[in-house]
Amino acid sequence: MTQLEWQDTLHALQAGPMDTAHQAFVTLTNTLADVSDDEELACLTQVFVHCKEHFAQEELWMQASHMPSIENHMRDHEGVLTLLESAAADLRAGQHGAGRELAES
Fold first, then answer.
1. How many angstroms separate the Cα of 60 from the Cα of each of 21, 48, 63?
2. What is the pLDDT of residues 52-93, one digit of tens each?
3. Cβ atoms of 3 and 104 closer than 8 Å
4. Rounded to an integer, what distance in angstroms lies between the CA atom of residue 39 and that of residue 37?
5. How many helices (H) and strands (E) in the chain?
6. Is 79 exposed, middle or buried (0-12, 13-18, 19+ CB in 10 A)?
7. 48 near 81, Cβ under 8 Å?
8. CA atoms within 13 A on the CB side of 70
């Protein structure tokens, strides 16, 4: 897989903790893309936990700042978590590659 590369000029929101969380996501996604079958579910689980925690914090920030269209962005979060859960279910069913495929997309 082509590794994602964090670039401040393209990706940074200049929102310290949020940028840090997004950088961690890039690192986790790059790791997931290259793990072995044996490590895939554990790594995907790390991505899921990271996203769930980050999304919860981000939603608090969005509510506190009265972000317009917060509902749409929260639905985006739900969609990502659903994709991660689906890939984890596939892995538990023995379908190796589901997490790596998701990382690639």
1. 15, 18, 5
2. 999 999 999 999 999 999 999 999 999 999 999 999 999 999
3. no
4. 6
5. 5, 0
6. exposed
7. yes
8. 12
